[in-house]
Amino acid sequence: GNxxxxxxxxxxxxxxxxxxxxxxxxxxxxxxxxxxxxxxxEGLQLLLKATKADDKGSNKGFEATYRKETTSFHLEKGSxxxxxxxxxxxxxSEGFASGGSYIPTFGRGTSLIVxx
Amino acid sequence: xxxxxQKPSRDICQRGTSLTIQCQVDSQVTMMFxxxxxxxxxxxxxxxxxxxxEATYESGFVIDxxxxxxxxxxxxxxTVSNMSPEDSSIYLCSVPAGQGVNYGYTFGSGTRLTxx
Lengths: 116, 116
Prior knowledge:
Chain A is built from no helices and twelve strands.
């Protein structure tokens, strides 16, 4: 079956530091890959996505590149802010020919804490 | 993409009682998903709710404990029945953000349930 593995948290950084959160996946086919962010007290929000190999998703200064050869989708940001403190979830979705639901598979989430 | 209104946002309940969580979507969607997020954990899919048919429950979740209603294409409820402290979690509803696997998912803001 499909699975997503994320680096354990929490990740603690100072403001303006470089961020990497690792994510690797296993899938039976060619999934679409996502990063979601969950700010304290809120639901999940889609942060960025990539739908095929070598695609780069980007949003709010965050980037992730779909690497099929390494089955990875690492999240990066060049300069984090205190407001980036949240839990980040890597996820994949794979379509099925039966037209069934595209139920995503989530990683366990990585907490990011950014200090001033 | 769709906007979901989920309520209540939080509740503290006595063991043995039941709580019904509501999700209202601002557009018609075929599939709605209900998740549980235990403290510090990833999302676990409880069930998929399709309008006009019985919900499909994942392994480990049963209809008697988590009855779901889906009376129309914009609304669903999840009831947590006969609650125990182990049911303390965040409960989230979700819908596809578009037609197809590439669009990701939109989430409600979550219901933070504490059972005492």
